[in-house]
Specification:
The protein has 328 residues and is α/β, with parallel strands linked by helices. It has nine helices and twelve strands. The structure holds iron/sulfur cluster.
């Protein structure tokens, strides 16, 4: 991919706290880019900071959440320097976000059609015929019968509601779509069909995607690049195919080993022992050290690991040795 990135997060720190002196850090120095049309997956356990990061990237982070340092650039413009009105105009029209709980997005007492009209009117599409035509087109694209535009959200199944939300998020043709566990609340069959539909829509409409999930096996299939987060940091980032074959961080390998294998004898799955650290009291050295089976005493529990990169694969671990690029 060439040109400047669609989204660039530069050394972003985010914390929660009403008082600036007692902010709990939840995102710690994240660098991440998304190019136009690219799918970047972000995976990690609950509480690792992935949703907070996406909320900040969409300009949706409200107090007590606050970006305490770094830059969030959308097409080169820093979201942190924008006024609330500039951010409002950007959301939905340029940057859209699909949440896990679609029922929380749609107003339960308003027909779907009205919600589409209101969203478009807020962004300057006030001609009702044009707005309805756009809503119908999006319903066709997400394979929902147009008659459901006249339904109330509770008259749609969970999968249909999520399709309606995706249609709403794409109706103004945003350049960047943040998907926060968009299929987690759905059964696997519906999950599969929605993932397929999203992938087709991305090819047709060309938007870039940040896909957040704890399901690394799903990301390996759909993402171009994957970032693994632990305790607020990106501990590994690599092209999806590379990560699948050559994960370099012990935490990523632990997540990978939690995939149930297909086509082989049933084996007992081993979970990752322990809990993520309390972000208010992070251990010295590597935040993963208390759970890492490869931790080196005196090093991992004392010194913060460095980041090492080679050929787009970046790992933050004392033990990682990047492969030498072939000569010639
Ligand atoms: Fe494990 Fe040490 Fe690497 Fe941290 S730095 S992931 S504790 S080996």
């Amino acid at each position: 991919m060439s040109g400047s990135p669609l989204l660039a997060l530069e050394d972003v720190h985010i914390g929660y706290g009403w008082d600036a002196r007692s902010v709990t850090p939840v995102v710690r120095g994240v660098d991440l880019t998304v190019a136009a049309g690219e799918v970047v997956g972000v995976a990690g356990e609950s509480g690792c900071g992935k949703t907070t990061l996406a909320m900040a990237a969409a300009g949706l982070l409200d107090p007590p959440g606050r970006v305490t340092a770094g830059r969030i650039l959308f097409e080169g413009a820093d979201l942190r320097a924008m006024s609330p009105e500039q951010l409002r105009r950007l959301r939905l029209a340029e940057i859209s976000m699909v949440f896990q709980a679609s029922m929380n997005v749609l107003n339960p007492v308003t027909r779907v059609r009205k919600q589409f009209l209101d969203a478009m009117a807020a962004h300057g599409v006030r001609n009702e015929d044009e707005a309805i035509a756009r809503a119908r087109e999006m319903f066709d694209r997400v394979r929902l019968p147009q008659r459901f535009l006249d339904a109330f959200p509770h008259q749609l199944s969970g999968g249909m509601r999520q399709r309606a939300v995706i249609a709403l998020c794409l109706v103004l043709r945003p350049k960047l779509v943040l998907l926060d566990e968009p299929t987690t609340a759905l059964d696997v069959v519906v999950q599969r069909s929605i993932m397929q539909m999203l992938s087709e829509l991305r090819s047709e409409l060309g938007f870039g995607v940040v896909f957040i999930t704890h399901d690394l096996s799903l990301l390996v299939e759909v993402a171009d690049r994957i970032a693994i987060m632990y305790a607020g940091q990106v501990v590994e980032e690599a092209p999806a195919k590379h990560l699948y074959g050559a994960a370099g961080h012990p935490y990523t390998r632990a997540l990978m080993s939690a995939f149930p294998p297909l086509g082989v004898a049933r084996v007992r799955m081993e979970g990752l022992p322990g809990q993520p650290p309390d972000l208010r009291r992070l251990p010295p050295g590597c935040a993963f050290a208390p759970r890492c089976l490869q931790a080196v005493e005196g090093t991992c529990d004392a010194v913060a690991p460095p980041a090492s990169s080679s050929e787009g694969h970046r790992v933050v671990c004392h033990l990682y040795e990047p492969k030498e690029a072939p000569v010639g």
